[in-house]
């Protein structure tokens, strides 16, 4: 990348890997070629093959993360590495290093906190049909719950500035980490961008680590947890509404009988209906209270986010120098 405006920016390429010996050497070499000033990190997640050795031979800094799961790796990477720009991709060769300069350029010129490389051709491999259906389904659910900020919440090709990386809590343990990233950006109303890119095929000997049903369930569970934590009124009022409908369904025949005969012969049914009505009211009140707490948490997260510089030592506004006291920004990446 020849852009002179990036010469003073420290760029870290982050590659979480698990058994990617068939591709990791070419991937590291590709990123070193396309981003010659970047420092490439490969985080080996308990690989049983030669992933770590081949990555080191290709010129990457290799770090081992013993907790299994992509989410654990991302949490470790963001905690360990201090850079201006973070480029995250996979080590399987499905994301082209040649696209990295465009993603970085978009991040800087659009002044975004995150740029997502949305995938074109995700169904090119026959084995991805189930993944593609799940991708469309979860993107639809995400849009309904959190808005239209993203069209591909599962893309693993992303570029972040320092402000995003250091404000992201990374609570997920597995492949649901991309969903958590998207929700983090949506809830804090961060400036984000998307860039449509070609999605490559895995070569022979490289197998997908994503399980359509197992990981799909984990992602759905994570979505539910994130809705509960970030939009508790929607979450608890939905349960309250379901309980209210059930209560009315039990209550209707009892009331019909009472108005017709003046008797209540189905006393257990009436008690169940009243119990469901009370539970419905409790869930509704809980939603109201927790919504206030969630707003307070969001305000604190926003203030923390606003207190972080987008890059180390970069002024936040043109003509305003807000560098930390002590002089220039550091010129090396700390790992």
Automatic annotation (TrEMBL):
Residues 315-335 are annotated as: Disordered. The chain crosses the membrane at residues 233-255, 267-294. InterPro entries: Glyco_trans_2-like, Glycosyltransferase_2, Nucleotide-diphossugar_trans. The keyword Membrane applies. Its EC number is 2.4.-.-. Residues 13-165 form the Glycosyltransferase 2-like domain. It comes from the Bacteria. Keywords: Glycosyltransferase, Membrane, Transferase, Transmembrane, Transmembrane helix. It holds the Pfam family Glycos_transf_2. GO terms for molecular function: glycosyltransferase activity. This is Glycosyltransferase. It comes from Hoeflea poritis.
């Amino acid at each position: 990348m020849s852009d002179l405006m990036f010469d003073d920016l420290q760029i870290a390429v982050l590659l979480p890997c698990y058994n990617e010996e068939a591709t990791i050497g070419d991937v590291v070499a590709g990123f070193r070629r396309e981003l010659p000033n970047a420092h490439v990190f490969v985080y080996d997640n308990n690989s049983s093959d030669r992933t770590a050795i081949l990555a080191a031979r290709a010129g990457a800094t290799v770090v081992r993360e013993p907790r299994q799961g992509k989410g654990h790796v991302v949490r470790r990477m963001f905690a360990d590495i201090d850079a201006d720009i973070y480029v995250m991709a996979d080590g399987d060769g499905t994301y082209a290093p040649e696209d990295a300069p465009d993603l970085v350029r978009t991040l800087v010129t659009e002044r975004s906190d995150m740029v997502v490389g949305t995938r074109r051709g995700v169904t090119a491999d026959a084995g991805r049909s189930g993944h593609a259906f799940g991708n469309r389904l979860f993107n639809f659910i995400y849009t309904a719950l959190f808005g239209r900020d993203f069209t591909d919440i599962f893309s693993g090709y992303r570029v972040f500035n320092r402000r995003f990386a250091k404000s992201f809590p990374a609570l997920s343990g597995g492949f649901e980490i991309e969903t958590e990233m998207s929700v983090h950006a949506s809830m804090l109303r961060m400036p984000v961008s998307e860039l449509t890119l070609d999605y490559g095929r895995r070569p022979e000997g490289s197998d997908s680590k994503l399980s359509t049903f197992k990981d799909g369930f984990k992602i759905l569970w994570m979505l539910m947890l994130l809705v509960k934590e970030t939009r508790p009124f929607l979450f608890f009022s939905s349960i309250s509404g379901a309980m209210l409908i059930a209560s009315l369904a039990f209550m209707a025949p009892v009331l019909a009988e009472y108005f017709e005969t003046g008797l209540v012969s189905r006393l257990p049914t009436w008690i169940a209906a009243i119990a469901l009505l009370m539970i419905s009211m409790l869930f509704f009140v809980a939603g109201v209270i927790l919504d206030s707490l969630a707003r307070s948490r969001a305000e604190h997260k926003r203030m923390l986010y606003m207190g972080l510089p987008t890059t180390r030592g970069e002024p936040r506004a043109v003509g305003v120098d807000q560098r930390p006291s002590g002089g220039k920004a550091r010129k090396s990446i700390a790992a």
